[in-house]
Amino acid sequence: MPEDARDISTLFEKKEVKAYSMAVFSFFAFAFFSVFAIRPTLMSFFHLQRQIEDSRELDQRLTDKINSLLRAQESYQMNQQRLALLDESIPQDPQFPNLVRKMEGIVTNEAATMTSFTTDNFSLLEENYLKKDEGLATVSFTLSVTGDYVRGESVLRRLANIRRIIMFESVKFDNSSNPLTNEVELSIDGRTYFFSHE
What we know:
CATH superfamily of the largest domain: Ribosomal protein S6/Translation elongation factor EF1B
Order of helices and strands: HHHHEEHEE
Shape: rod-shaped
Oligomer: single chain
Number of strands: 4
Distance between the termini: 103 Å
Largest sheet: 4 strands, antiparallel
CATH topology of the largest domain: Alpha-Beta Plaits
Helix content: 55-70%
Strand content: 15-25%
Number of domains: 2
């Protein structure tokens, strides 16, 4: 055995050298395991921790949305009848023929006579209504009814109470055509609304 090798082996037999050597090897082993074993485990742990926090935050947001939807559903159910009345008062399309039939029915029930009915910008014969703009649109009309004053007033009151919104721009009672009788002519210029959409 060469002399250098004997010096090294005697050097390693000393207790201090053994202790320092073990400390150095332990440090290198700890560093090796830290880099190749403990570090990936710690990275996985922090990654999972972040995923758990993100999941909790997402769960909270989804819970808030669900609660918001439940409140909206509750509000919708409470106001469902009112929404139905709103649909009747301002429908999604003109539904003007139905309104004219209601007006004719009111006039007939009050034993009056409808003498004329005209519209400015609307045709009852067209199936595809002309809708230029989206939003609230109007249909203007003029209605003339003959009968006595009480019947005319009753027709007017019942027209005002239809569930469909009707704005009366002018209302006129005239008995100049037959001044000797109690017959009057009720003239109404009005308009009704609907939602126009393409």
